[in-house]
Amino acid sequence: MAKIVLDEIDKIYSGGVKAVDSLDLEIRDGEFMVLVGPSGCGKSTALRMIAGLEEISGGKISIGDQVVNDLAPKDRDIAMVFQNYALYPHMTVEQNLAFGLKLRGIPKSEIKQKVLEAAKMLGLEPYLSRKPAALSGGQRQRVAMGRAIVRQPQAFLMDEPLSNLDAKLRVSMRASLSQLHERLGVTTVYVTHDQVEAMTLGDRVCVLREGRLQQVDTPQRLFDNP
Ligand code: ADP
Ligand code: ADP
């Protein structure tokens, strides 16, 4: 676990669009922070800069004690889940969950234990030997999340992870996400344009507008002072 600090970060795309404008935000250790706002307000760009997938035009980002501006994504101790989860189609759920750990040369017995633990948390135990094609959308998204948490990263970044699911599934996945966060306590940054999702999931919610921070507060206080 680690806090994430955004210190006056900017993003200017090559076309001249200022997607993120002097964003200052401290995400506390273990906090579930939601970035919310209308399409184009800079949420994804901000998240991608934290992940290192987008170069930062100005300012400073730190994860834990480390300034990560110049670190490649793989050298940042984070895991990401996107809306278009890419599972390996030829691998079973178990193999998908184990893949990242195998790459890191972790011993087999330890991999097995971690995979089982993640599968249990996400209700995936019955599906361990299935391939992605034989799973529902929600189950696939759970596998994507499992793959992210199994490494026990310092921070968990999610970009609209539920937006491809139908309304009913979104509601149940929200509950799963809250439970997961409660159990893991991992610092989480979650991007959505859905206000209900933001208010249900966030310990705090950061409202962005045209690349700038408009408000940041607990859901309750935002609800009381819109
Ligand atoms: P959101 O996630 O809130 O929808 P984005 O971060 O995707 O917002 O986009 C913020 C702004 O930056 C928008 O005006 C968008 O068109 C622009 N933008 C995003 N990605 C790029 C890019 N790769 N090149 C140029 N402009 C971009
Ligand atoms: P979202 O709003 O869910 O982030 P978008 O459909 O806006 O997704 O963007 C999808 C991809 O296109 C992203 O990689 C984003 O960086 C890129 N993109 C968005 N807007 C622009 C733009 N104006 N010019 C170039 N690339 C863009």
TrEMBL record:
Keywords: ATP-binding, Nucleotide-binding, Transport. The keyword ATP-binding applies. This is Sn-glycerol-3-phosphate ABC transporter ATP-binding protein UgpC. It comes from the Bacteria. Residues 4-226 form the ABC transporter domain. The chain holds residues 1 to 226 of 414 of the full protein. GO terms for molecular function: ATP binding. The gene is ugpC_2.
